[in-house]
User: Fold this.
Amino acid sequence: MASFSMNNNSVKIHGTGIAKPTRLLVVSDAHLSLDDERGIPNQENSRRMAAAYPQAFANFTQMLSERKTDAYDYLLMLGDMVSFPSAKGVETIMELAEKTGLPYAYTAGNHDWHFEGLPGTEIKLRREWTAKRLAPLYQGRNPLCYSIELNGLNLVMMDTSACEILPEQQAFWRRQVEKGLPTIVFGHIPFWVPGRDVGFSVGHPDWNASTDGNWKIEQRLRWPESGHNQTTMDFHKEVFGADNLLGIVAGHIHGQSVDFYRGKFQVVVQYGVTGGFLEMTID
Ligand SMILES: [Fe+2]
Assistant:
């Protein structure tokens, strides 16, 4: 049984039995709003979010430049790295990630693929704008779910940015469980833990049309009357019930938090807009 310790934004997980100590730099919600002439056709759809976090670029780039990147083995980016899918924003995130010299992994946030007011379901918009803009960030991996095995540790990147889980992602998770390696799940939107509000959307029993406070302002379809589909509810149970799961790391909430549920941790990363980040050492 591994132990979990946390000082400020530094997590240590000890006693996993992996081959050697592994150090992760985790960032989320940088909300860069850079744009150029390629964004003009979607200016109406990016206007609100473009104005939302004017301080984001300065704070996020300063935080990255202050990290001693030889202190980490991997950089993980947990979504809402941009506030809308501008070509300029995605290129900038790529450049910043490459500049660290670290291998990196990315999973999308709900803003990364969203131009507000465009028609369609979140699943459809995610697919469309992932292909059009976000694809290079995945470096050839499956945007919905992929894993990185590092020193005997299994890092699972799971796209939770549409709040709901697809059958393909559930099937992928079951294959990860079968590996039997100590595993951490990384996704943008955190999982429901009893007592948490619907911002912790994945598998939340109260996630439905009546609790969706932001659909009008974000100009997207309202959450369904009937709540989560069965796949998402089952997925939540299966993840928290997996013996080899150490815990979950997410973003989206814009404030650091820690939960323990069914013997697993869930850490939410402080948002990159203010220069927030998380470091994790696993041994
Ligand atoms: Fe988000």
Notes: DSSP finds six helices and twelve strands in the chain.
